[in-house]
Automatic annotation (TrEMBL):
Residues 121-294 form the Quinolinate phosphoribosyl transferase C-terminal domain. This is Nicotinate-nucleotide pyrophosphorylase [carboxylating]. GO terms for cellular component: cytoplasm. Residues 29-119 form the Quinolinate phosphoribosyl transferase N-terminal domain. GO terms for molecular function: nicotinate-nucleotide diphosphorylase (carboxylating) activity. It catalyses: nicotinate beta-D-ribonucleotide + CO2 + diphosphate = quinolinate + 5-phospho-alpha-D-ribose 1-diphosphate + 2 H(+). Belongs to the NadC/ModD family. The lineage of its organism: Bacteria, Bacillati, Actinomycetota, Actinomycetes, Micrococcales. Involved in the catabolism of quinolinic acid (QA). One of its GO terms (biological process) is quinolinate catabolic process. The gene is nadC.
Length: 308
């Protein structure tokens, strides 16, 4: 079971997305509302058009619910035949939506935008998770997310088999080169964080083995080894592991590799003994998964009378 999204966040995000498409609430769809009678009902299938991993189905009911409310029409019934995290292929029906055709057509683009984006992230993540299977290393996401959609994209990473790193600047401290410059040293930066925010874990970015060992001495909980060639990365991991449990260093230091990571290097990097590979491309470069909402042909007996 994929840990879920906050329903309040989903509702707020869907409302903003609908405002973009329809204008300020209740808004309008000038094409659909002119050509489809409010009384018309029908069924639409949410369908995958490509191979991938589905995610974001959690938003479908909220989109259709809010559209129905804006149009003052009955809500559509949504029957899911796939779940977030499922592998899918072209033609796979993911959900069946039944209700007012106006609701289905007005909801179409917003639910597709969100579900296609999430499914693209889940698909990219699954490729990394499969490549790392059995290595002991996990793939992590980053903060390189679409503004306003971080919660959805990090949810999609989980659906794809990846692991979330920090959600933002508020939950884990990350000491980078600019922080070291501003504070004067790694030790000063870590000391300031410990004094000001004693409840957070502190991670330090290192480009060399010496920097990694300096960060350990200064009290880092977690190391981010950035852009290291594989031999240097392996030597740094070995040096850190040799210090674990000694001289105040934790018994287990978590180590993350980042920078210049590609799928064809994934197992090689994992073989150095790192715990994580963090991959910004999971969110910043994942293409969408092509999904469609296909309205099913109506039975002629059920069609509303034509406008006169």
């Amino acid at each position: 079971m994929v840990p879920g999204l906050d329903p309040a966040w989903v509702a707020e995000t869907v409302a903003r997305a609908l405002d973009e498409d329809l204008g300020a609430a209740p808004g309008r769809d000038v094409t659909t509302q002119a050509t489809v009678p409010p009384s018309g009902t029908g069924t639409a299938h949410l369908v995958a058009r490509a191979v991938g991993v589905v995610a974001g189905l959690v938003v479908v009911e909220e989109v259709t619910r809010q559209v129905a409310e804006r149009l003052d029409l009955p809500a559509a019934h949504v029957r899911f035949v796939a779940a977030d995290g499922d592998d899918v292929g072209p033609g796979r029906v993911l959900a069946e939506l039944t209700g007012p055709v106006q609701v289905l057509l007005v909801a179409e683009r917003t639910l597709l935008n969100l579900a296609s984006r999430a499914s693209g992230v889940a698909t990219a993540t699954r490729a990394w998770a499969r490549e790392l299977d059995g290595t002991g290393a996990l793939v992590l996401d980053t903060r390189k997310t679409t503004p306003g959609l971080r919660a959805l994209e990090k949810y999609a990473v989980r659906a794809g088999g990846g692991t979330n790193k920090r959600m933002g600047l508020y939950d884990v401290a990350m000491v980078k080169d600019n922080h070291v410059v501003a504070a004067g040293s790694v030790s000063a930066a870590i000391g300031a964080i410990r004094s000001t925010f004693p409840d957070v874990l502190v991670q330090v970015e290192a480009d060399t083995t010496d920097q990694a060992l300096e960060a350990l001495t200064a009290g880092a909980d977690f190391l981010l080894l950035d852009n290291m060639p594989t031999p240097v990365l392996a030597a740094t991991v070995a040096a850190v592991r040799a210090r674990e449990g000694r001289d105040g260093v934790p018994a287990k230091v978590e180590i993350e590799a980042t920078g210049n990571l590609t799928l064809d290097r994934a197992r090689e990097v994992a073989g150095t003994g790192v715990d994580y590979l963090s991959v910004g491309a999971l969110t910043h470069s994942a293409p969408i998964l092509d999904l469609a909402l296909d309205l099913q042909p109506a039975d002629p007996a059920d069609r509303a009378p034509a406008h006169r």
